[in-house]
Each structure stands twice: as C-alpha cells, then as structure tokens.
Amino acid sequence: MKTGVCTTDFEKLPLVTADALFGRISALGFGCVQFAFSSVREADFVPTGQLELPGRISPAVLAAVEAASARHSLPLCVMNATFNMAHPDPEVRAVGLERLALHAQAARELGCPVLSLCSGTRNPDHLWTPHPDNGTSEAWDVMLDTMLRAAEIAEKHAVTLAVESEASNVIATPEKARRLMDTVKSDRLKMILDPANLFHKGEAHPENARRTLDEAFAAFGGDIVAAHGKDIREGDGIAFCGTGLGIVDFPYMAKKLREAGYAGDMFLHGIYDPGDMPRALAHWTAALAETA
C-alpha cells in the first residue's frame, strides 16, 4: 500500500506548474497522488460549486502532467472527476457527464485507473453542502440516473468510478452506498473509504470511531478502491482536520483494510498545510506499521 496525498490539499497555496507540484509532493515523502487538474497552473481552471472538473483538457496539459508524474515517480492512482450528480438543474448534470467523458479519456492516457465522483446534493450552490431534500426519492432517482450514465462512460473507457459515503450528499450512509452499487450492478462502480465523511452531526465522538468504521466495512469493505486519510474533530458538529488530529482510529482503519483484502493506496487529505504533512504522514505510517 503506497501512501499518497490529494493534490487539492495544495490548492490554498498559489498554483504552480505540474512539475513544481509533483516535485513538492515527492520531497514530502509521498509515493502517489490523487490528482485534480485544478491543482496545476497549466490547466487554467477554477472549480465552481457545481462542477469541479474542467471542460477542456489540452494535449499540452496532459503532456505536462504525464512528464511530472514520471520525473518524480508519482503515479496518478486516482483522478478527481467530481460534479453535482444530483443537481436540480438537468443541464448542470448533462455538462458534468460530458466532462466526465473527457476525464475518462484523459485518465486512460495518463494510466490512471480510478475516477472519483460526488453523489451530489439538491443544494444548487455547492456539491458538498447538505440539503433537506437529499433523502427524498426524487433526489435518489436523479442521482441514480446520472450514476447509470456515468457507469456507461466508465465501461466505454475501461476506468473505475469511485464514490464515497458523505453525510452532506445523497449517498449519506454506507447502507445507501451498498444500495447504489447493488442497483447499478456495474463492476465499474466502487467505493472510496473516507472515514471522516462517515460521521453525521452529533456522532463525532471517540466511542463511535470503531463502530462507524465497522458499519462501513460491513456494507462495502470488499468494494473499496481508494482510501482517504482525512480526520474529524470531536464534537457535535462536522469539523474536518488533518490525519491524526481528530477521533479517527487510523490503526484500526489500517487493520480493517488489510482484513478486507484492500489492494489500493492511502491518500492523505484534509491537511491543507504542507508544513503539517510530515507529521500526518508519520501518523499514518505508524498506524500502518501496527498492523504489519
């Protein structure tokens, strides 16, 4: 299991070239990346609240990313392709699917096997923000229709799609994630395990840490293709933080991943401060060593 980082954790800094970004990541000691085009200057793209994937990926951008990946020995193991799959405006969803197809082709060209998705929300302004209608049958049906179309794109381009259980989205629980995969019935649709996103308001307390992971592994443990190292602070709200600064039991998570036969990599996430990344990396490395 390689340990990587999500390139979006660097987006609060001034954007740099692909080569400079990959060089920085390599120097920090990471071995792979979950990549977003918004993280590199060459792409000239700023995510919106509905679409976090650009509508154009030029050959020059692909060449720059491919060269940076090779030069710094950092494979692209996951690529971000997130858009609001449950947006109330069908045009937003249609544009998202068009861009997903571009990203599927780009992923093939860059040798990246997995595209990350967001199941979406009925909130029209931001794809990671909750909405009271997210639990309705209408929200489910809209998201499912988009996901079925996405699975067709994945099949065409021979890439894997990965969604996660996220409290603010339509797929808000491991049970809903299981229902989604059982309904779509595609080997191209799998899961990201992000432990912090499993907690709902009022649940982020240490006594719930292992139970929450147990429920996720029981529902979709055999379908995990990417793992995130994001953490969550103790409290009745939702306050994410860097790996090892919250209540997530990372040694237990590593143990559960091994027991599930997980063959993917870990991507630290939610740090946003390069100065804190060595500490976060050391925390996960120690957690992994406990289960060796």
CATH architecture: Alpha-Beta Barrel
Q: What fraction strand? A: 5-15%
Secondary-structure-based class equals: alpha/beta
Distance from first to last alpha carbon: 11 Å
Overall shape? globular
Query: What is the radius of gyration computed over CA atoms, rounded to a whole number of angstroms?
Result: 18 Å
Helix amount: 25-40%
CATH topology: TIM Barrel
The total count of strands amounts to 10
Listing every helix as H and every strand as E from the N terminus to the C terminus, the arrangement reads EHEHEHEHEHEHEEEHEH
List the domain count as a whole number: 1
User: Biggest sheet, open or closed, and with what strands and sense?
Assistant: 8 strands, parallel, barrel
Strand ordering within the main sheet: 1-2-3-4-5-6-7-10
What top-tier CATH class fits best? Answer: Alpha Beta
Question: What is the arithmetic mean of pLDDT?
Answer: 97
Q: Could you give me the name of the CATH homologous superfamily?
A: Divalent-metal-dependent TIM barrel enzymes
Low-confidence stretches: none
**How many helices?**
8
